Amino acid sequence: MKLAWIMWLATVLPPQSADSLCLSTTVYLEARDQSLRGQKAVAEVALRRRDSGLWGDTVCEVVTARSQFAPTLVSPRTRLNNTRAWNHALNVAFDAERNWALPPGQRREVVPGASHFHAHAIAQPSWRNAYRVATIGDHTFLKVQSLKPRRS
Fold first, then answer.
1. Whole-angstrom Cα distance, residue 118 to residue 35?
2. CB 3.0 to 4.6 Å from 39: which of 12, 31, 79, 120, for a disulfide?
3. For the segment 24-65, what is each residue's pLDDT rounded down to a tens digit?
4. Parallel/antiparallel/unpaired status of strands 116-119 and 139-143
5. What is the largest CA-CA distance in the chain?
6. For residue 13, what is the DSSP state?
7. Containing H/E element for 119?
């Protein structure tokens, strides 16, 4: 299936389902060739950003914020045709959402405090020298800024 179709589908689904679809798509595009730990870390960064409200109020808004995650960086014609990796990305996203729904002190965080990441082979962002939380596979996870959940 094509990325454009998936992102359109996210616009017509109920918010929670849309967010799961957007998070799964991001995990697939950003980290399908990474370890389970690396995939969880990508999901965690997106969820942490959603909680901060700085990039949007939903996961879909966060991962489609201009030039932030793969859904806006790759061609809308990109095909997500690795069924095995897609199913795995769905499971990672659902698990990450369940984990993130726990109170902060009970979450199993992979990259505590990480607000950004970059793939070594693709990006050399200006913030790449920020505090390094972890390197997992070919991604480095960084704490570029302190993200605090917005107040309800």
1. 15
2. 31
3. 999 999 999 999 999 999 999 999 999 999 999 999 999 999
4. antiparallel
5. 40
6. S
7. strand 116-119
